[in-house]
């Protein structure tokens, strides 16, 4: 992710969206993992992070950060204290915000006339295509499509000018928006709008079919796990993710089927998975794991994880 955010930074500074003295705002900057690229290169910047303890970490890195929930009123404060922005960015944040209308209004206000909004989030088209229903959980208030983003922000005089698919989080989309008529619209916009219509994202039947595929996926998974258990195999889980919580609870997977979950995050060690109460163990113990089967919950990072765990496969 550090590499991904560095590349995100590079794409912005190499674009034609920035003025001679640009001001960058990031919504949900976390500990400054992306914004520090701007800070370290002397760009005027501001991070907005509602988690106070995390905002403190960002400020320790030299990333100027305020702790607040961004909305229209916070936008007014930012304009008064810092001025308007050339670029307003976020990554895997916009889909978490229930008060999205006030956020959209605030963004349209805080952007300069030539300013742009660039954000990326899990993409509805990929969720439907892959039946990745584990993207549906409490934090993900929305799953955006090109159509929904276009409609939402058009109400605040912003138009979609580009889309760029990303591999992160099992399939994400990066959206670029600007004040109407300010920039030429990239052909990708119509390309994806047409593709979404072909995919049926504008039809309720598509989502009924999605429901059927989810049920089918659940049944196949339970049949597999029960079959392995019947044959005397033990199964562990790898990565106690939000996605895993959705799968475990929806499918009713208990400790009888998956006995433990390994995770690298210290704060999770010694805890239990929400709902199913499967113990979460320190990743350091994984090296002693003898079970033949593991359930990779962090499947969106499968390439990196499989490369890291080559000794286990052998």
Strand order of the largest sheet: 3-2-1-4-5-7-6
Outline the biggest β-sheet. Answer: 7 strands, mixed
Order of helices and strands: HEHEHEHEHEHHEEHHEHEEEHH
- Quote the average pLDDT: 94
Shape by Cα distribution: globular
Our Rg estimate from Cα atoms comes to 21 Å
Task: Estimate percent helicity.
Answer: 25-40%
Global structural class:
alpha/beta
Quick description:
The protein starts with a helix and ends with a helix. Helix 4 (about 70-80) runs parallel beside helix 5. It has helices at about 1-15, 35-40, 50-60, 70-80, 100-110, 125-130, 145-155, 185-200, 205-230, 240-250, 300-310, 310-314; strands at about 25, 45-50, 65, 85-90, 110-120, 160-165, 170-180, 235-240, 260-265, 280, 295.
Notable characteristics:
314 residues, alpha/beta, 7-stranded mixed sheet, 4-stranded parallel sheet, 12 helices, 11 strands, globular
Could you explain the architecture of this structure?
The protein contains twelve helices and eleven strands. Helices cover 40% and strands 20% of the residues. The two termini are 27 Å apart. With 314 residues, the protein is α/β, with parallel strands linked by helices. 34% of the residues are buried. The strands form two sheets. The protein has a seven-stranded mixed beta sheet. The longest helix has 27 residues, at 204-230. The chain has helices at residues 2-13, 35-39, 52-60, 72-82, 100-110, 124-130, 146-154, 187-199, 204-230, 242-251, 302-308, 310-313, and strands spanning 23-27, 44-48, 65-66, 85-91, 111-122, 158-166, 172-179, 235-238, 261-263, 280-282, 293-296. Strand 8, helix 10 and strand 9 form a beta-alpha-beta unit. The chain is globular.
């Amino acid at each position: 992710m550090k590499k991904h955010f560095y590349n995100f930074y590079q794409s912005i500074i190499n674009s034609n969206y920035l003025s001679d003295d640009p001001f960058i705002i990031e919504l949900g900057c976390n500990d400054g993992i992306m914004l520090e690229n701007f800070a370290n290169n002397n760009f005027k910047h501001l991070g907005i992070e509602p988690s106070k303890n995390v905002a403190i970490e960002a400020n320790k890195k030299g990333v100027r950060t305020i702790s607040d929930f961004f909305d229209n009123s916070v936008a007014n404060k930012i304009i008064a204290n810092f001025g308007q922005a050339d670029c307003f960015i976020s990554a895997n944040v916009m889909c978490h915000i229930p008060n999205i209308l006030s956020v959209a209004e605030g963004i349209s206000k805080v952007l300069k006339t030539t300013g742009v909004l660039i954000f990326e989030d899990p993409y509805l088209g990929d969720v439907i295509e892959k039946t990745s229903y584990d993207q549906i959980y409490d934090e993900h208030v929305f799953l955006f499509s090109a159509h929904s983003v276009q409609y939402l922000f058009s109400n605040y005089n912003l138009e979609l000018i580009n889309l760029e698919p990303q591999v992160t989080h099992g399939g994400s989309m990066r959206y670029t928006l600007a004040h109407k008529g300010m920039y030429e619209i990239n052909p990708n916009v119509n390309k994806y709008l047409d593709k979404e219509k072909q995919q049926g994202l504008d039809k309720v039947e598509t989502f009924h079919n999605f429901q059927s595929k989810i049920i089918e996926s659940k049944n196949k998974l339970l049949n597999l796990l029960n079959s392995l258990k019947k044959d005397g195999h033990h199964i562990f889980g790898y990565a106690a993710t939000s996605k895993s919580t959705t799968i475990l609870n929806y499918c009713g997977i208990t400790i009888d089927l998956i006995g433990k979950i390994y995770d690298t995050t210290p704060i999770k060690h010694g805890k239990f998975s929400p709902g199913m109460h499967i113990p979460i163990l320190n990743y350091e113990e994984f090296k002693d794991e003898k079970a033949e089967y593991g359930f990779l919950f962090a499947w969106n990072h499968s390439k990196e994880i499989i490369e890291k765990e080559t000794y286990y496969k052998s």
